[in-house]
Amino acid sequence: MFLSMELPGGDKGVSLMANDLADDERFDPTCGYATASSERNRVDCAVQGVNRAIGKPPQKAFFGLFNQFRWPGTTGWEYWSDNYQLMLKHALLVAAELTVPLHVKMNVIDAVLAAAAASGITFEYDFASSVQTLNNPDFAYVNRQIEQGEYVVLTNVVMRQL
Known about the structure:
Elements: E1 2-6, E2 15-19, H1 39-53, E3 65-71, E4 74-79, H2 84-98, E5 102-105, H3 109-119, E6 122-127, H4 140-147, E7 151-158
Parallel strand pairs: 1-5
Antiparallel strand pairs: 1-2, 2-4, 3-4, 5-7, 6-7
């Protein structure tokens, strides 16, 4: 699984993308079902669970958080928000829940760095490494972007109580 925060382009806002999902070849977006033990289900549950957990009950943190990207090997959630501090916190907590690193595409890195500084979140980052063993052959496209330096990986993340 490759988890990233990025701006996909077009009319889409900043999104949290999970690509190269394992055992997702037979996913059918028209029925929307994923097995309970699948990486897709784990990601989708983590995104929604963290959204509820960091909200102020009975509200979620993001009213507008939509599963806009659903195809075999990918699930992605678009934030309908411009609150980068909250988006970064959410993305980092989802990554922690899934025990995977968070990658950031260069098209949002400046906003992420500013949000981190304003939130008291610290981290180091380095250029991401391409995925060597693919779960989904379509991820080769993202791998090419990784190899061109379009993604960084966040490491040594420290979040103060926000």
